[in-house]
Specification:
Length: about 150
């Protein structure tokens, strides 16, 4: 799966004839400019979101690594459903929302390299006792005593 800068999810196919050619091309969380890919209309049951096509990558496809200007970030796209409406999805075979399962081409990264999260975590560790004290005294209701924002 590929995600563009607007958050559109696109599936890319590499057929067996080209697997060896592309085997060392992509790395997780890296940015690439992909051009000259062939568009294939995707069956509705295999679509990722509302995008109707998949990309087929061949030896004619140009893939250029792009510099990472900031730490790698992927768009967070969440679809929240109120519990009272869950019955609508109970018997749906093709629910393309967040899932705890993975397919052959997917991977799960535990503790991804995200600098912002690490800074916030470190700030929390440094101020842990004071945060617990402030929460217990409900000082979050008084803006004059709040902790400074993480730097």
């Amino acid at each position: 799966m590929i995600t563009n800068t607007q958050g559109t999810k696109v599936s890319a196919l590499i057929f067996s004839d080209y697997l060896e050619f592309f085997k060392n091309t992509f790395q997780l969380y890296k940015r690439y400019r992909i051009s000259n890919a062939t568009l294939i209309l995707t069956e509705p049951r295999y679509r990722l979101g509302s995008y109707e096509h998949s990309w087929s990558l061949t030896k004619k496809t140009l893939i250029e690594p792009q510099p990472d200007l900031t730490s790698p970030t992927l768009p967070n796209l969440f679809n929240f459903t109120p519990f009272s409406e869950m019955f609508k999805y109970a018997d749906v075979e093709n629910n393309l929302r967040l899932s705890l399962s993975t397919g052959n081409g997917s991977s799960i990264l535990i503790n991804p390299p995200v600098n912002t999260d690490l800074r916030l975590y470190n700030w929390f560790q440094q101020n842990n006792k004071e945060i617990k004290d402030l929460l217990q005294r409900e000082t979050y209701k008084d803006t004059d005593i709040l902790l400074p924002h993480p730097k």
